[in-house]
Amino acid sequence: MCPRKFDWSHTHEKIMKVFGERLEKGEHVIIREDESHRYLGESIKNSMPDKCILEEGDNPENVTGTVSRHLGQLGFSNRLGQKEGKKYIELWIGQSDKKRPTTKATTTTFGSPVIDEFQECEKKMRNSTLITYSDMHLIPDKSGVYTAWMNDKLLYVGRSTKLKNRISAHFSGKRGGDKFCVYVFDEFLFPDLCKENTRLSTEQMDKRTANWICQNVKFRWVEAGRNLLTKLEKTFRKEWKPLLNPNLD
Predict the structure, then answer these.
(1) Which end of the chain has fewer beta carbons closer than 10 Å to its terminal beta carbon, N or C?
(2) Is this structure's pTM higher than 0.70?
């Protein structure tokens, strides 16, 4: 077997250009096998089977690690692993938190570290079916993240330990304690009420809000473990920029 031709001359610069801001905040990032060549000069995909992704030499019984050692010399703490036949490198700056989950599945539907989780979650969200009020029975009573849509426009991103209860509350239109209903009323209904110069009771305004949501809004969701909900929601809001709650609280 020929040695891997990794090129370390610009690895630090390339990694920091893409991930620097997140790494400096203490986040862990994932470099997958299909993009590893951009940073290392050689893909980790074809590294020796059943060995750590690091190799130097042609004897399967005597392989010297290179990737982890070189990344460490460049100042990156790292883990190397393989999930579902695909290899990856996990990077961070500073000491590893031993209590932090590794590549063991940590959600109800998909597994691996949070950055990788978002990519999988994003794909599932895009491919999931839009649910209307009449389809409420299809929503599971499980934890996850969800999105609200008006035609092709993303209105809102949220999270809940009980998706069915949360989305049901949104369809109710009751603004007391429900941010989504408040945002919908303020953005889509209040301007028209001002033009009408009509006085409505709280109950009437909530009912009008509920009618508007049931007629115009559909939801998508993806199940996820409770320990990942906050990070996944924040990442969705940052990347997808929903109309009603784009800013991170």
Answers:
(1) C
(2) no
